Amino acid sequence: MTDLALPAAETAARTAAPTVAGRPRRRTLAYLQAAPLALVFLVFLVVPLVLTGIVSLWEYNEYEIIPALTLQNYADVFDGCLSADLCTTLRTYLSTVKFVALTLAITLPLGFAIAYFLAFYIRSGTVRMGLFLLCTIPFWTSNVIRMISWIPLLGRNGLVNDTLRALGLIRAPIEGLLYSDFAVVLAFVHLDTVFMIVPIFNSLARIDRRLIEAARDCGASGAQILWTVILPLAKPGIAIGTIFVTTLVMGDFVTVGVMGGQQIASVGKVIQVQMAYLQFPAAAANAMVLLAAVLLMILGLTRMIDLRREL
Amino acid sequence: MNVELIGLTKRYGAATAVDAIDLKVPSGAYCCLLGPSGCGKTTTLRMIGGHEHASAGDVVIGPKAVGDAAPSERGTAMMFQSYALFPHLDARDNVAFSLRMRGSGKVERRAKAMAMLDLVQMGHLAGRLPAQLSGGQQQRVALARALVTGPKVLLLDEPLSALDPFLRVRMRVELKRIQTELGLTFIHVTHSQEEAMALSDLVVVMNAGRIEQAADPRTVFERPATAFVARFIGGHNVIRLPDGLIAVRADRIRLGAEAGPAARPARVVAVEYQGTSVHVGLDAEGLERAPESPAALTAILSDADFAARPLRPGDTIPVGWDAAAAHRLDA
């Protein structure tokens, strides 16, 4: 009897202790444990952001950057936006947002379908792991090489056009395959679908299989189960995946540049060009506006889905 | 509605989980499928509910064989182990779920769900999510959800095993009340013989995919059909005599002067005080001891009898039983 009672007494003592002396020490310990990551965030996120914010308020001319306080850079960003036709910034944002929408429209159903397949149809953990690795193949080589390799496939005399011509389906090569909106979206889908798959898979994997049986017992059809049980429970994963894809596409300049044949404007591209011309204050101002825009989009998303509650 | 199983079989590859069982559950009966884990009781239940495809045999519910009909077309409803409530829906919407799947209007299904929640005394917590409910409350919601479509047969998969002992006894009473009130056929899977005894009109003891005995609780306890039943149901001594196995209820074992002419000397190896009774473990010459049990025989004495003549481990005492108390076993 005493043997049995001992562990219970011990746990009681342990839970009681923090109320007396243990709590401050435990809190210090918690802060200590969080400190390394906090430090990384501080040095590599907060400090650069603050610096960018400061630089965005500086003046610049052709020769030098002058530490002063001016809102001119922001005024330049929105120059002409109040007039009837759209200003460059607004048009660039619209173009980028269009890519976000198109990429989401494809990666979301695609990512959900793949995640669903992995979570519900693959029983063996080894096979699942293998298929996951397959999803990461796009990341086995660098971004630039990956995009260059589209050229022999999609180019005017590329594999696709040649095959179609050989089959007699088309007479003249299709022009819009490369250096077009289509090519940009294709590259985004290729790159970003995995960022949709992983969080959605995570949500789906946590769904108790008995819920699906229970739904079937209640007379739900396959489509009803998907719509009323699986989809609501996958919402956190969908939200996180959407945030990933949105931020990736909003901030991109390489993909739009290469796949668009340097003909399509994007917000990231504007910033990159300004950096190339050493117009750091202008680039910083644009970056701050981009940051605000992305944050607003994420805020909108979290309004729709309460992530903190769902996690 | 009555439920009949005819040669019902479930095979997983080479392994047979349920081996051609036949069973008749009369309409309005409370039937418990009782057995150790892995005996095939849950698989049987799932085949009745349409959640598992039968390898062979038939399930007949009411007038017709249900074959491969979907769960909702059988007139059955299942209450799942650990309840399987939808975590994103509150109690009322959980109960209303099957009505929603059938396309009934919002107002109508919510009213029905509320009536059902009131039946299980959960009306006041209708707006809570499952995570905000205790185990017992979740179970009531699960029960309401199973009952809301008016099934004729309710299938319960270890419904009480996740509850603490005190709540288990309370919910047991509740289940029996609802079953009697609604006049439904309940088929309840459990590994607790106490639960099966307390609830059922028909106890079905299963072992290794077969039915060992199907009878009312009193018959199962008084006249266990096999050594397995006698051991599993508890309270019995299974004794190998030269001419076969017999079961003697532990409370019919006689010690000392009352042991009778066929008595043999036994050594006390364990004494356990249980409140109203005392369990005495005994070893005797010529009686084999089952591998996992602490003693060859167990005698249950009333606390008064024990107090009048206390025993201690190491004592030697004659042990016997009335010939009438010995029940011959099949195997």
TrEMBL record, chain A:
It is a multi-pass membrane protein. It is found in: Cell membrane. The chain crosses the membrane at residues 34-58, 99-119, 131-151, 182-204, 225-250, 283-302. Keywords: Cell membrane, Membrane, Transmembrane, Transmembrane helix, Transport. Gene3D superfamilies: MetI-like (1.10.3720.10). Its main location: membrane. PROSITE patterns: ABC_TM1. The keyword tRNA processing does not apply. Pfam families: BPD_transp_1. SUPFAM superfamilies: MetI-like. Residues 93-301 form the ABC transmembrane type-1 domain. InterPro entries: MetI-like, MetI-like_sf. It comes from the Bacteria. The keyword tRNA processing does not apply. Belongs to the binding-protein-dependent transport system permease family. CysTW subfamily. PANTHER family: INNER MEMBRANE ABC TRANSPORTER PERMEASE PROTEIN YDCU-RELATED, INNER MEMBRANE ABC TRANSPORTER PERMEASE PROTEIN YDCU-RELATED-RELATED. This is Spermidine/putrescine transport system permease protein. It comes from Methylobacterium fujisawaense.
TrEMBL record, chain B:
Residues 3-233 form the ABC transporter domain. SMART domains: AAA. GO terms for molecular function: ATP binding. SUPFAM superfamilies: MOP-like (SSF50331), P-loop containing nucleoside triphosphate hydrolases (SSF52540). Keywords: ATP-binding, Nucleotide-binding, Transport. It comes from the Bacteria. PROSITE patterns: ABC_TRANSPORTER_1, ABC_TRANSPORTER_2. Belongs to the ABC transporter superfamily. This is Spermidine/putrescine transport system ATP-binding protein. It comes from Methylobacterium fujisawaense. The lineage of its organism: Bacteria, Pseudomonadati, Pseudomonadota, Alphaproteobacteria, Hyphomicrobiales.
